[in-house]
Specification:
The structure holds two protein chains of two kinds. In chain A, helix 4 packs across helix 5 and helix 7 runs parallel beside helix 9. Chain A is an alpha+beta fold. By secondary structure, chain B is α+β, with helices and mostly antiparallel strands. Chain B has two domains: 80 residues, Glutaredoxin; 154 residues, Glutathione S-transferase Yfyf (Class Pi), Chain A, domain 2 (Up-down Bundle). Chain B contains eleven helices and five strands. Chain B has a five-stranded antiparallel β-sheet. In chain B, a hairpin with a 2-residue loop joins strand 4 and strand 5. In chain B, helix 7 packs parallel to helix 9. Chain B is globular, with a radius of gyration of 18 Å. The N terminus of chain B is likely disordered. The chains are: A alpha+beta, B alpha+beta. The interface between A and B is medium-sized, with 26 and 28 residues.
């Protein structure tokens, strides 16, 4: 694909991207997508031993001797190494990218966290077993629960509070916000192939990172997925990226 | 149609303001518009006032000490219209829209999506940075925030309440991942946000060209507060001042919507509220 062609950098980065997809499922998808758009050669390793991850913070990018652990920093690092998917964007488009990313984080992320980590049926039947199967015992007993509590904590602290007094009210509000966010994204995408024309950029990576888990993972409780499936252009967007850049149908992570 | 606006301070030391608003057609539609003393949210009053001004809705701002408790969501400022009380920018905008005033009717769907995205950016970055600076930066907390926040109360209540608020804010910062950030990183984020806003604004008078929208009110509120709040250092306001078009934007809105409307201040408000201006 053309993204690889656009990439200017010739030197080879020996990158390992260690994954342990928690709510980092989003970021892992995002980073993989971004790396593919920018043509950065990434080797993706599923985590074998999360003790070795510095600060137990994933995803982690390890390039030669440098270890970087936050998604935004990882993206900056890739850019500085000249794997940049945004060369052809104008200043205004760059600003739009930041704005839409903020929209995703504020409006869509709480509902995603809820779907994966707080919704009891989803958590017990899909997230926890899948996650626990990928990390070593005895972490698998402790870490999923911790992630779940942190997700709930985050949702309540950022969205709870009067006039929403119970968890059900908060949940209703966050799903409303998430659906509104999906509608806004759909309007913005319209009929184009990507958000800024015909080549994918950082924003496409972010949106894909957020949408792909919702789109592809089979949950028992799927209200967000159903709403997403009604927005055909977003589904087409995800499918295009999956077939072009990932060349396989992803189940999860 | 404009009635005089009582535009009193964003920094109402030790007091909060609440406003009365008369409907343009003269009917009894009194709106009480409350703003907090600096409860870590000093920019919000300005945003409300700016928004209501832009809608040509007259607002009168008066001071009250218990505004936070009057508000249905515990957040200030809020507006009081007849029997209804509405707090926070989102619901206020919806409320005003339901009464037939809206700033974003002229936008198409894609522009509305963009406007909402930029509003989230401002909330995400600027608001969180303001909160961080007020409550997580130790020097600022000790010298400015604690005294200001606890000023209406006697000792020891003032210390207890401000520590409680600080703990609450820090918990929230930790949940969203800002607790680990250093001041430099926060300032860098503010810079990035201002750069994005500056690039979006370009040379236009407003963000969506000729007419102001909710986004303009929101950005004005935050930037004005940052530019006029006296803190320990000027680093935050310097970040904003780096972008000439943003300061020009603030000045323009201040001149257009707030100049010449100050004469109607009520005695209580003007006595306790300090006024600041970008035009010195």
């Amino acid at each position: 694909p053309s993204a690889a062609d656009r990439n200017a950098q010739a030197c080879f980065l020996n990158c390992c991207l260690t994954l342990a997809c928690a709510n980092q499922i989003i970021f892992c998808n995002l980073l993989q997508a971004y790396a593919k758009f920018a043509g950065a050669p990434l080797i993706v390793n599923t985590i074998n031993n999360s003790w070795s991850s510095p600060k137990a913070d994933v995803p982690v990018l390890i390039s030669e001797d440098i270890v970087i652990s936050q998604p935004a920093k990882i993206l900056n690092f890739l850019r500085k190494q000249r794997y940049n998917a945004d060369y052809e964007l104008s200043a205004k488009q760059g600003a739009d990218t930041l704005a839409y990313i903020a929209l995703l984080e504020e409006k869509l992320l709480p509902a995603l966290l809820h779907t994966f980590w707080v919704e009891a049926e989803n958590y017990c039947s899909v997230t926890k077993p899948w996650f626990a199967s990928r990390i070593p015992f005895p972490l698998s007993l402790y870490l999923p629960g911790k992630m779940s509590r942190e997700a709930l904590n985050r949702i309540l602290l950022t969205r709870g509070g009067p006039p929403l007094y119970s968890l059900t009210e908060v949940e209703a509000q966050i799903y409303r916000d998430a659906k509104e966010c999906l509608n806004l994204l759909s309007k913005r995408l319209g009929t184009s192939q990507f958000f800024f024309g015909n080549t994918p950029t950082t924003l496409d990576a972010f949106v894909f990172g957020f949408l792909a888990p919702v789109y592809k993972v089979c949950f028992p409780r799927v209200q967000l997925q159903e709403h997403l499936k009604e927005l055909t252009n977003l589904c087409r967007f995800c499918d295009d990226i999956l077939t072009c850049y990932f060349k396989l149908t992803v189940t999860d992570g | 149609m404009q009635l005089p606006l009582l535009f009193s301070a964003k920094k109402a030391h030790g007091s909060s303001t609440f406003a009365a608003l008369r409907c343009p057609n003269g009917s009894v539609f009194s709106i009480t518009f409350s703003q907090a003393r600096d409860r870590g949210r000093t920019s919000l009053p300005t945003i409300r006032e700016a928004f209501l001004q832009m809608c040509n809705l007259p607002v009168r701002v008066v001071c009250r000490a218990n505004a936070e408790y009057m508000s249905p969501s515990g957040k200030v400022p809020f507006i009081h219209v007849g029997n209804q009380v509405v707090s926070e920018l989102g619901p206020i905008v919806q409320f005003v829209k339901a009464k037939g005033h809206s700033l974003s009717d002229g936008l198409d769907e894609v522009q509305k999506a963009e406007m909402k995205a930029y509003m989230e950016l401002v909330n995400n970055m600027l608001l969180t940075a303001e909160l961080y600076l007020q409550w997580c930066d130790d020097v600022t907390v000790e010298e400015i925030t604690h005294p200001r926040y606890g000023s209406p109360y006697p000792w020891p209540l003032n210390r207890i309440l401000s520590y409680q608020k600080q703990w609450e804010i820090r918990r929230k910062m930790k949940a969203i991942g800002w607790a680990g950030k250093s001041l430099e990183q926060v300032l860098e984020d503010v810079d990035q946000c201002c750069q994005a806003l500056s690039q979006r604004l370009g040379t236009q008078p407003y963000f969506f060209n000729k007419q102001p929208t909710e986004l303009d009110a929101l950005v004005f509120g935050h930037l004005f507060t940052i530019l006029t709040t006296q803190l320990i250092t000027d680093e935050l306001s310097e970040k904003v001042k780096n972008y000439g078009n943003l300061t020009a934007f603030c000045r323009r809105i201040e001149q257009q919507y707030f100049e010449g409307h100050d004469k109607d201040s009520s005695a209580t408000a003007s006595a306790r509220c300090a006024k600041r201006s970008l035009l010195r």
